[in-house]
Amino acid sequence: MKSSESWLQTASLEEIKRGYVEEGAAYICVCCGYRTEAGIIYPEEGVLYEAARYMRVHIEKAHGTVFEYLLELDKSVTGLSDVQRGLLAQFHEGKKDVEVQKALGIGSASTIRNHRFVLKEKERQAKIFLALMELLKAKDTYAPAELASPVMRQGHPIHRDQFDITEQDREKVLNKYFPQGTDGSLTTFHMQQKHKYIVLTEIVKRFDPKRKYTEKQVNTLLKEVYDDYVEIRRYLIDYGLLEREPDGSQYWLGSHEYQQNNGDGEPKRKEIRKDRNAEKEEKGEQDTMNRRKELQEQAKEVKTEAGVYQIRNEHNGKVYLDSTLNLKTINGQRFMLQMGSHLNRRLQAEWNQYGENAFVIEVLEILKKDDNPYSDSKDALAKCLNRWFEQLEPYGDQGYHRDKKESGE
User: Does domain 307-398 have CATH number 3.30.9.10?
Assistant: First the structure.
């Protein structure tokens, strides 16, 4: 299986910029490995998309922009310092030097201007270096084909050792997000990375380590856990807890989880690989047709939900309220806070003071869809947000808003 990290490593510059690669009749997202296939029509919010166009829709919904995704990559991959990452985020928003200086609180406007020149110089050097490496390929026959180290998104650790998790931590998190017990449904998946890891390692226990699943079977199982089963499935893949065939036709428990859950020691990898190759050879035209039907069903089932959410400071209980037409995009709020560019300066200041782990992003209410074609979802969402403002009154010592007229301040 080729992971999303491998796609990013082997994609060309143009492919990385647009966010996907083409492989035969498939379009593959370099950010997460999601695939669309030519010849299939993908419905989304009443609009029908062909495969290439829907891939761009997927990137926008799942990752915001390719720029945002790349900027979140670990500094060992990008070579960027935290200051440079913050600057690039501000420049991407089209801000002037004075505005950037005020937002980041570093130096003066002339300092920001100097940083712009430094980054342009870095770009010039990178072009020369890329040209040298391209010319070297024909001569250096001993160079590795790919990077040995995986491409990691910042904030996406995938090993337990990278977290300080105690049994008390695990019990507390599972009780919070599985109030009906771990066999029940998940209340939300909008949580910090440490909690995500705990929740995902619990969810993956529902899979039989000796069994293989079709994508439809995986979706059916995950629907019992959480409405947005596509996001859960993607994170299970990204964290290596589930593995799958390159075409997404079969899924199985990741080798690390297999070893933990099975208790049989190291799996016989050669035999497993041999079995997989034999199964691939047996696939025929019928498998392809079944795969397309599953993709069509999956596209129809993907939901976009509007709603109200809060960013809550667990240290002092203060909250920031806002709404969105697509709750899948609220992690963009965390990204802006990490970059130091959030529009609410009070929230940003306390984020900087208390640290990321002191805050949680929670969905307060999901807007019910109205079948009336004349209904105004934006108006309904605004009224929903106002109700929460009246209920929580997030002003002064209770929140990050000055008064009822300033939902963005």
Answer: no
